[in-house]
Amino acid sequence: MVFAGGTTQNPTISASKTSDGTGNGSFTSNVTGLAANTTYHIRAYAINSEGTAYGDELTFITIAVTSTVPGAPTIGTATAGNGQATVTFTAPASNGGSAITGYTATSSPGGLTGTGTTSPITVT
pLDDT of 29-38, one tens digit each? Predict the structure, then answer.
């Protein structure tokens, strides 16, 4: 498989490439480290003693990364109860560009957890 990045058309084996098998059959190539929102050109190739033959070129655009890890919530209070604790918190100022789907409070020591979508959370 031949792989060339950016707007370089008609990639050749002198460009970045993967080697994903020999002989007849189907091959799969995994390419990592691609930049977001970038056009890439890719095509397969075969080599024998007579030279190199290239398949049709395909073009794709990687998706833009629009979210990151959210900020940390701010702990308000932790109130002990009978075999449990209730933890209040304030949601982070930044959700990282994507809705926060839940929170987890973990005790130390013990590693006991409580989960929820809003404050407070009870750890049992």
Answer: 888 888 888 8
Name the residue with tokens 């918190």.
89
- Structurally, the chain folds into a number of domains equal to 2
Residues of the chain where predicted confidence (pLDDT) is lower than 50: none
Q: Is residue 78 packed enough to be buried (19+ CB in 10 Å), middle (13-18) or exposed (0-12)?
A: middle
Judgement on whether residues 57 and 79 belong to the same structural domain of the protein: no
Q: What are the tokens at 95?
A: 């959700």
- Long-range contacts of residues 52-59, Cβ cutoff 8 Å, at least 24 apart: 52/12, 52/13, 54/2, 54/10, 54/12, 57/9, 57/10, 57/11
